[in-house]
What we know:
- The structure holds 2 protein chains of 2 kinds.
- Chain A is mainly α.
- Chain A has one domain.
- Chain A has 9 helices and no strands.
- Chain A is globular.
- Chain B folds into 2 domains: 1-33; 39-159, CATH 2.40.50.140.
- Chain B contains 3 helices and 6 strands, in the order ααββββββα.
- In chain B, strand 5 and strand 6 form a beta hairpin.
- Residues 133-166 of chain B have low confidence and may be disordered.
- The interface between A and B is large, with 45 and 43 residues.
Amino acid sequence: xxxxxxxxxxxxxxxxxxxxxxxxxxxxxxxxxxxxxxxxxxxxxxxxxxxxxxxxxxxxxxxxxxxxxxxxxxxxxxxxxxxxxxxxxxxxxxxxxxxxxxxxxxxxxxxxxxxxxxxxxxxxxxxxxxxxxxxxxxxxxxxxxxxxxxxxxxxxxxxxxxxxxxxxxxxxxxxxxxxxxxxxxxxxxxxxxxxxxxxxxxxxxxxxxxxxxxxxxxxxxxxxxxxxxxxxxxxxxxxxxxxxx
Amino acid sequence: xxxxxxxxxxxxxxxxxxxxxxxxxxxxxxxxxxxxxxxxxxxxxxxxxxxxxxxxxxxxxxxxxxxxxxxxxxxxxxxxxxxxxxxxxxxxxxxxxxxxxxxxxxxxxxxxxxxxxxxxxxxxxxxxxxxxxxxxxxxxxxxxxxxxxxxxxxxxxxxxxxxxxx
Lengths: 245, 166
């Protein structure tokens, strides 16, 4: 059956095993890509004609900002699948993603603020891009807070999933905020379509960092997902088999 | 309808509803959610006199004048249609330069001069090594259509004495 793989994803022991097996296959490439991207970005790439070496914070800022949106979208899709198909593992994916996404959002806001002071002349402005990204942080924190307000995991799953799905409308707003409104923030430098706005010596390290951060999220997600599954299934009999030393 | 189908419709319905509500709210706010006004809007009287606001545009080439022995600087902000003279007496950001994007916060004086209490430099999404001219690397156009025209040659003259006395 074509849908067998999908149904097996709903089985906690299967997910626990697969996530454990896949983690090193994501973690090691992530580490290599991030090290290569940092060397390429911080040493090999030339300085910028206007910002000098100051622009190099982009190699942390842009991938963090990208991940803040990517993780939220993943979380919302997982939460939606959890709501519709009543799939516990999908809720576990969403719950495991939230702190990771919140961390990336926080990193994007902090690095952006540090970049903004020397270049724009300000740490913070209530600009559309900056404000919508701050709202994203609050959505993550709200999701986590809402989850922890329930003792019953199932009720926490459903209530928080509705919040995650509703909040996903903020993702395109963040992305297009620099296009729709006058903004202090410049438009994106790397788009899926269209020419990059920098030479290859600058954008190749940025792409490596983007890919590295994405794989890093995958690895962290799988580790956290195993923890989520273990805590949800702690009374199940398969656990004794799975965690036997 | 199976319960699963019902939940699917419900989730998609919530998402569609929130998107439509958000879209309507944002398009209604579109005029008001403006981080800055451009000089043309200011010249058309979109801003009430004495009101604090932000104005964005390009620093007109050749318009920057620093008063010797003081922090006072004045320059012209342009959107290629209208020019507004600006005075400012604090530290300018590193990326402030002639021909580059700038956002100033402050208010208009009755004589048409903008008194800034904060100057922010805008930069574009283009990065390149120093020494490579625009001819080598395709340089993009500013997003704001008002800023896409060739640099204006018109310049604003205003009495210096008028801006130095508060």
